[in-house]
Write a sequence for this structure.
């Protein structure tokens, strides 16, 4: 057990003065506990943040951790430190006190390491407390990965093996970063740990790098389309491709570290199918990069590549970042792309203090450049790495877990669900997409009447083209909703006004003043309330605090540029009192008690352009992610006809829907007929077919046996079934035998089923076919009395 340090006199004084605000220019260096005890053991030590950033330039030479910071006078420009204010560089004492308000002093609360392990499962405790480095935690859906990740950070700080001020937690969304920091704060780790996305952290570092070199920062191109549109104009070889599709190809290439002259070969190697010839995309890619240089612009991908390049070329800058960040934690590692991985390697700098969390079954971004293999290669790519597995699902009911696992195939047995049983997921078909949307709206209203809040309900879709029909139906039903990605925090009226005031501020303390003002505005409502204005201001305050953790000296201009970068890919309405409509991809990392998944049709799931085995597997994982967003209730549906561009198109159910139905409702037929009735009924029907001849699989094989069976079956029923099949197959654009084989027609004509269960017992009829075709087939049989 490490030595623990008790409260100091300064801590007791700090408690008395906890509401007092200090001026930024007098913030002192954070007190560091003696070696062998972590910051959380130094309970009550006053934690004050300096206005000057941490880094090796703050040191007096070589540090015990092996990093030598810039010490020469020219380290920060030809005339030495541009921020020198007389006397020693960076001296803060002796200057007149500012009257600018600052953040209140925060006290680091005492947290005992054993308490961080007390309510965890055995696998979770092992992942939190292991001393292994590097560490990969493979956590399935609902396994509590965020809980484990935050506990591990807090545990390492509590045991003195990590310094909170040198921790960097990387996430893929701003919301995930905010949740992580909030959880750490609840565990007693206050405003010290830095958390953010790869882009946000890289941009903050680059702006500091440019400022230290006296270099004007290039303008940030927030959307590639603005630059690509004029480059595409009047180029016939690019006709037929949208700007968004071309931008996506460039983003994929840059994420994969592929330059323009390598694109054509790489696209072929990866089985990429761009909307226009690969050579034309490569030429556009080269023109796009040249135009950015000409206009002094950088895009989001350049922020990552630029940070890598800066660290490769500038040893002092690299040393500064590696001194600042020493303990690395990466969430959703299965979604890391090669460019992000290269930046992570640059930050880590050959050290081993790295913990990554991921789930191979939730790798759904390879189309955008991510490389799921990086997670699988941890054991070989990082010598001495330890692997911890978290397989139990603590979020979903056993029924939801079983249904989701069925999508992945028989080689993926469902994990253990720790929650009690819930209702069986239900699968429904509708005649049209409008009817499906109306059915979803009715289900939402029913769930609301049963006691669930609107914000506890979500509708998930594969593509944004499915959203308009749902919006229309929900509006007609009086269901409040928000479309994930449909609104922007920075477009909110009150947020725009505050940002406008900040943009006009000229003080170097503008960000700290801005944060203090925001705290006053939201102090009365510290949690999301559903109130549009209050929740928007809370979100803005969280972003401001995040920036201050990344760059304590950042200017107002730097903050505004960083804010634009951070929120650019996360458009969302801050209101919480509404149903969420979201794509499968955007729903990742979220959860709701009840979820509706619409449009489970071939061509949407899997998506039409997914043709390679790897792409099909990713579609499976995407549907798995969608289903596991539901904690208890999941409703799945598809439409027999869907409108595309105003034209109704016949649809077929997803090829995975039959496996989903079998897993979701394994006991439905047994419960309706008794524990042994269904097997007996199935045997009875098969014996009936064998004795009557037609449709018997034992009576012959191939086309000859099917033809013989049809010849022996009731001719009136056979003729009606054939006529119907021919018409339906033409409408669906498929061969007739794909819809129903001749042997199945013969079995129907011979058995003359009268109920869905009887139809289901026949060879060639599964749950999906019965759901889709059953009513029509039963009606045809009923209309044709048995021949004498």
């Amino acid at each position: 057990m490490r030595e623990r340090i008790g409260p100091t006199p300064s801590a007791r004084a700090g408690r008395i003065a906890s509401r007092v605000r200090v001026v930024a220019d007098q913030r002192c260096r954070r007190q560091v506990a003696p070696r062998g005890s972590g910051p959380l053991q130094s309970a009550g030590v006053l934690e004050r943040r300096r206005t000057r950033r941490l880094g090796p330039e703050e040191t007096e030479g070589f540090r015990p951790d092996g990093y030598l910071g810039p010490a020469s006078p020219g380290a920060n420009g030809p005339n030495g430190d541009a921020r020198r204010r007389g006397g020693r560089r960076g001296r803060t004492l002796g200057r007149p006190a500012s009257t600018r308000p600052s953040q209140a002093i925060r006290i680091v609360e005492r947290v005992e390491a054993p308490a961080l392990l007390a309510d965890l499962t055995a696998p979770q405790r092992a992942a939190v407390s292991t001393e292994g480095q590097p560490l990969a935690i493979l956590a399935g859906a609902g396994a509590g990965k965020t809980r484990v990740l935050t506990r591990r950070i807090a545990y390492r700080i509590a045991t003195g093996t990590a310094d909170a001020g040198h921790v960097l937690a990387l996430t893929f969304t701003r919301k995930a970063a905010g949740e992580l920091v909030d959880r750490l704060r609840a565990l007693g780790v206050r405003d010290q740990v830095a958390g953010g996305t790869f882009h946000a952290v890289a941009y903050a570092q680059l702006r500091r790098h440019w400022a230290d070199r006296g270099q004007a920062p290039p303008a940030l191109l927030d959307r590639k389309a603005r630059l690509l549109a004029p480059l595409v104009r009047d180029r016939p070889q690019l006709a037929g491709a949208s700007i968004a599709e071309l931008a996506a190809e460039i983003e994929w290439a840059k994420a994969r570290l592929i330059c323009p002259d390598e694109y054509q070969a790489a696209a072929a190697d990866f089985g990429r199918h761009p909307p226009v010839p690969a050579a034309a995309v490569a030429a556009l890619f080269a023109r796009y990069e040249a135009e950015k240089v000409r206009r002094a612009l950088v895009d989001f991908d350049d922020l990552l590549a630029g940070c890598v390049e800066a660290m490769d070329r500038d040893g002092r800058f690299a040393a500064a970042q590696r001194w600042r960040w020493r303990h690395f934690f990466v969430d959703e590692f299965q979604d890391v792309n090669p460019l992000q991985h290269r930046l992570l390697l640059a930050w880590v700098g050959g050290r081993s203090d790295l913990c990554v969390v991921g789930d191979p079954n939730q790798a759904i971004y390879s189309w955008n450049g991510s490389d799921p293999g990086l997670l699988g290669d941890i054991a070989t790519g990082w010598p001495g790495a330890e692997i911890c597995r978290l397989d139990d699902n603590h979020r979903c009911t056993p029924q939801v877990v079983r249904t989701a696992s069925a999508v992945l195939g028989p080689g993926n047995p469902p994990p253990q669900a720790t929650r009690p049983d819930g209702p069986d997921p239900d699968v429904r078909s509708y005649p049209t997409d409008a009817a499906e949307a109306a059915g979803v709206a009715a289900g939402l209203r029913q769930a609301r009447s049963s006691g669930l809040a609107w914000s506890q309900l979500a509708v998930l879709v594969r593509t944004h083209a499915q959203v308009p029909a749902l919006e229309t139906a929900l509006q007609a039903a009086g269901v409040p909703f928000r479309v994930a990605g449909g609104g922007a925090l920075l477009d909110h009226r009150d947020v725009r006004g505050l940002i406008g005031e900040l943009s006009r501020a000229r003080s170097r303390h503008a960000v700290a003043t801005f944060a203090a003002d925001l705290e006053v505005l939201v102090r009365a409502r510290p949690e999301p309330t559903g109130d549009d204005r209050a929740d928007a201001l809370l979100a803005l305050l969280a972003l401001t605090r995040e920036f201050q953790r990344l760059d304590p000296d950042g200017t107002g201009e730097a903050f505004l540029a960083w804010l634009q970068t951070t929120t650019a890919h996360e458009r969302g309405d801050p209101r919480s009192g509404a149903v969420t409509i979201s794509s499968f991809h955007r729903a990742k990392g979220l959860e709701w008690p009840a979820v509706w998944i619409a449009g489970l049709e071939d061509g949407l799931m899997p998506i039409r352009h997914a043709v390679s085995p790897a792409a099909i597997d990713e579609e499976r994982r995407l549907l798995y992610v969608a289903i596991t967003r539901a904690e208890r209730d999941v409703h799945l549906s598809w439409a027999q006809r869907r409108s595309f561009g105003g034209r109704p198109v016949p649809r077929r159910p997803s090829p995975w829907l039959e496996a989903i139905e079998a897993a979701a409702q394994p006991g439905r037929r047994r419960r309706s007929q008794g524990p042994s009735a269904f097997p007996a009924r199935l045997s009875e029907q098969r014996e009936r077919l064998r004795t009557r001849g037609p449709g018997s699989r034992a009576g012959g094989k191939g086309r000859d046996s099917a033809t013989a069976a049809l010849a022996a079956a009731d001719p009136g029923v056979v003729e009606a079934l054939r006529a119907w099949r021919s018409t339906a197959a033409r409408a669906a654009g498929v061969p007739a035998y794909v819809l129903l084989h001749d042997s199945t027609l013969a079995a129907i004509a011979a058995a003359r089923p009268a109920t869905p269960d009887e139809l289901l017992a026949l060879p060639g009829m599964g749950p999906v076919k019965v759901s889709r075709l059953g009513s029509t087939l039963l009606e045809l049989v009923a209309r044709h009395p048995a021949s004498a």
Q: What stands out?
A: The longest strand covers residues 630-639. The two ends are 91 Å apart (CA to CA). DSSP finds 33 helices and 18 strands in the chain.
